Task: inverse folding
């Protein structure tokens, strides 16, 4: 079906605006070449954008050209499909970050969603996200594909890099996806691994999806029901509760002002006389003893006995490491 003149003009205006946003100065002839129109059409389109409120300045010189400047008022915003979906993702994250802009982000998301075409609205509605961070470092298309698989209850297949050096974990993984979560600026997929019969979490930026998706599955209830707390618990070495599995209490021969900056989520209590009580947790007793040793001061273990045993084992290992190698 032929494209109407008004539709073609609107698309050309969007393309022109996109070009002006990615480069500071554009010669008029280069814009005409990129848009496959005449210089006269470029001038008319620039005038149309000015009427909409975009402050486009003419550049004097042999070739002439245009520059998009910052204005005093917000003009109507135009987005292509990928920009619109990316904006919706960002707004959904902002609405749950606790940064004090939740209400504005929610209203902006409602405004954007209302004017989206049906095909884009379906993609946005498929994004069911849980957020505890703000930075997004993954391709929006991957998020949309995973969100669609979650909504459709379809298994996903993917290659996975277990480390930052790009080394893959071997055979492709197969997971029943349930949740997408942002934690400390990174995206994670939480799903049920049918081969290992357990819940697993994966960094999305290390996933390379394979197509097509696998068979449909019956959704499961996540232990504890809170996806953000579940992922935080896994990072602490716990199965479901967002608590450290090993917790101890010590008194350090340091003032609280020197302990607090390095205490993380531990409870710090100033005792006076330059001493501090510290209630702290870790994923293992050995890790807890090693974490406390880094304060480089005398330590009095209040409890439990397992922490004393861990210090004893650590001291034996340290003594062996300190011995000179035999000739």
Result:
């Amino acid at each position: 079906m032929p494209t109407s003149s008004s539709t073609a003009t609107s698309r050309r205006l969007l393309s022109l605006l996109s070009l002006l946003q990615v480069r500071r100065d554009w010669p008029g002839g280069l814009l005409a070449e990129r848009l496959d129109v005449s210089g006269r059409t470029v001038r008319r389109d620039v005038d149309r954008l000015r009427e909409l409120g975009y402050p486009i300045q003419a550049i004097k010189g042999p070739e002439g050209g245009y520059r998009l400047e910052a204005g005093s008022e917000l003009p109507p915003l135009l987005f292509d499909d990928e920009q619109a979906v990316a904006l919706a993702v960002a707004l959904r994250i902002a609405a749950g970050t606790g940064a004090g802009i939740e209400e504005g982000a929610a209203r902006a998301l409602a405004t954007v969603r209302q004017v989206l075409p049906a095909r884009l609205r379906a993609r946005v509605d498929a994004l069911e996200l849980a957020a505890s961070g703000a930075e997004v470092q993954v391709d929006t298309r991957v998020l949309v594909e995973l969100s669609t698989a979650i909504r459709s209850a379809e298994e996903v297949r993917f290659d996975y890099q277990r480390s930052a050096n790009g080394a893959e974990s071997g055979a492709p993984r197969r997971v029943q996806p349930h949740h997408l979560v942002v934690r400390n600026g990174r995206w994670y997929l939480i799903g049920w691994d049918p081969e290992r019969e357990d819940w697993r979490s994966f960094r999305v930026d290390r996933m390379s999806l394979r197509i097509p998706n696998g068979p449909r599955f019956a959704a499961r209830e996540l232990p504890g029901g809170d996806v953000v707390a579940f992922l935080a618990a896994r990072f602490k070495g716990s199965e479901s509760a967002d608590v450290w599995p090993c917790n101890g209490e010590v008194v350090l021969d340091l003032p609280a002002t020197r302990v607090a900056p390095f205490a993380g989520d531990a409870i710090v209590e100033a005792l006076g006389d330059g001493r501090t009580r510290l209630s702290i947790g870790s994923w293992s007793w050995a890790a807890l003893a090693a974490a406390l040793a880094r304060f480089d001061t005398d330590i009095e273990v209040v409890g439990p006995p397992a922490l004393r045993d861990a210090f004893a084992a650590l001291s034996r290992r340290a003594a062996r490491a300190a011995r000179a190698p035999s000739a």
User: Anything to note?
Assistant: The chain is about 40% helix and 20% strand. The first strand starts at residue 26 and ends at 27.
